[in-house]
Every structure is written in structure tokens, then in C-alpha cells.
Design goal:
0% strand, mainly alpha
Length: 174
């Protein structure tokens, strides 16, 4: 398997086909499992998994661990990221009874927007960037990639943002 991965990494098309053929049962079972758990389409998840695996092929380190396990793990991460993105983007249907008349100003929303602006104004630039990415629907890994840091750094910033919010909220309640 390692020789096949090395050749595929070097760009050999037949080695890529052999690698895909060898890993197809595991990737298909993984996609089917996560599709059952999440309610997402199995083919969409399978496609995401293959993209993750083939993207990781160029960066796999042959001397560290088991390369095929690394490729499968990258496929799983990509698949799980797709599930998270789908859940974030899924919208709830609007109930007509909750709709407000378009001409009436909504003071609660205006106050909420002002509060959010006030809170985010107290954040550091990096924390604002992290918050913007997360509010845009990025996963921690995607936010880290967009901002040039690891998901662990994003987790650290999120913890700081939460801590600052708790202090800010306590001050607002006084």
C-alpha cells in the first residue's frame, strides 16, 4: 500500500486508480455511516470524502505513521466539515405568525445589533476576525486556514471571546 501511495503522490495516474480502488470500500462505508447519522446525502458525503483524501495525498508524509490511515482520517475530517457546513446553512422555515409587518421598526433587533457592535468593538483584531469567520459559518479548521493559524489557535481565541463576553454581559446586567 505504501508503494502505491508513494507513486500516487508522485503523480502516477494508475497508482491513483489503484489507491482509490483499494480504499473505496472503507470510504464508502464511512460515508454511508455518517449519512445515516446526519441525514445528509450519501453521495455528497462520499464526494467530500474523496476530495479530502485526494487533497491530502500531496501532503502525506510517508515516514510518519501509517499513510493510508492518514488519508482516511483526512477524508473523515473533510466529510465531517461538510456535515457541519450543511447544518449551519440549513434554514428553519418561517412561520407566518412570527413574521412582522415590513413597515414596523423592530426595536429589539436594533438594540441587539447595537449590543453586538458594542461587544465586538471591545475585541482585539484577531478575535474579531475569528468571530467573523465563525459567524459566517466556517468550522474552526476552516477559520484557521482562512486566518493562517491552526484550529487549536481558533479554540484559544474562542475561549478568550467567551471569557470577555461573560465579563461584558455581567457588566451590562449591573
Amino acid at each position: 500500500m505504501n508503494r502505491c501511495i508513494e507513486k500516487a503522490k508522485a503523480g502516477d495516474p494508475s497508482a491513483k486508480e489503484d489507491l482509490v480502488y483499494a480504499l473505496r470500500p472503507r470510504i464508502a462505508k464511512m460515508a454511508a455511516y455518517y449519512a445515516r447519522c446526519s441525514g445528509e446525502d450519501v453521495d455528497d458525503l462520499l464526494q467530500e470524502a474523496w476530495i479530502g483524501l485526494l487533497d491530502a495525498l500531496c501532503e502525506v508524509k510517508m515516514h510518519i505513521g501509517t499513510p493510508d490511515q492518514y488519508l482516511i482520517q483526512c477524508a473523515r475530517w473533510r466529510l465531517l466539515d461538510a456535515i457541519k457546513r450543511a447544518k449551519v446553512r440549513r434554514c428553519l422555515s418561517l412561520d407566518e405568525t412570527t413574521l412582522e409587518s415590513p413597515g414596523a421598526p423592530d426595536s429589539e433587533h436594533a438594540v441587539a445589533r447595537a449590543s453586538v457592535s458594542e461587544f465586538t468593538g471591545e475585541l482585539k483584531e484577531q478575535q474579531k476576525a475569528v468571530l467573523d469567520c465563525l459567524l459566517a459559518g466556517f468550522t474552526w479548521r476552516e477559520a484557521g486556514t482562512a486566518l493562517g493559524c491552526s484550529s487549536a489557535n481558533i479554540a484559544h481565541h474562542v475561549k478568550q471571546i467567551k471569557r470577555r463576553y461573560m465579563a461584558w454581559d455581567a457588566d451590562m446586567m449591573e
